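Researcher: Next entry in the queue.
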Amino acid sequence: MKHLTKKKIDELNDMAYQIRRMSLDMITYSQWGHIGGTFSQAEILACLYDHVLRIAPDNPQWEDRDCFVLSKAHASPALYAALALKGFIDYDDIYTYCRIGGLEGHLDMLETPGVECSGGSLGLGLSYSAGVAYGLRLKEAFHRRVYCLLGDGELCEGQIWEAAMFAGHHKLDNLTAVVDYNKLMAKGFINELMALEPLADKWKAFGWNVIEVDGHDVEELCNAFHKVKYLESTGKPACIIAHTVKGRGVEECEFNYKWHTHAPSVVKANAFLHELSCTYDKAKGNDLKSAANGGEGDLNYIIEEHEYEVR
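Model: Structure for this entry, 311 residues:
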């Protein structure tokens, strides 16, 4: 199994922090968004975009790229943050989130470089990903892989299991699904509303190779991605079940379905930012603009700079 250096682990954890911080900015400015599911996937996206994916930010349509599909497209702020951090879009683009002519609340592949699949209706991402993986198989593009990030509540959609059956039948071992298993949906806990367990057995029954990991442990995540690509080439698609915490990093939001779709006030957002900074041992209140210049600031600073009014 490939082990990460301490330096790389620190870099990935820092990227997860940056994803959460930038996502908080976006959701606060627009006064709309999904903090819970956005925060739970931060480490997953950090590992994919800074360690796993073959990508070319200066050429988003590079024909040899890996494809990443965010099926839970309502959690778009985290993906926009990752795309900005890797250079697909400009940093300032994040401040256009949910504004006319800006970044869409749900993903639009025709408008945002680096977005592989438009989203909105839950359940379609795995079907799209399986189709791409099957197409790559037909083209004999064996070096390219497809990764699809699913929400756990999304697994209630029947289309997910149709796609899972298709991928298993065609032995699409170039496809990896990741389940952001944060245990909550919009109105409550998964086990109370639509229980998924035994989840691993369900995927196995559809012909998938399954690995379960701590979805906030970057080393575990990267090892799982390495394992399914290099060490367990079983002729099966792979499913990584990532056990996560909804709203991870902010105590008020953690395991709290009321933060599934909710935006904080500027005052509360600054408190959240301070909590994130303490959790990740960062300078208090550093924001995207001032941190880049070695200074300090807070959300009020960015709102003033960009002349946005919180709605």
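Model: The longest helix spans residues 6-30.
Researcher: Noted, moving on.
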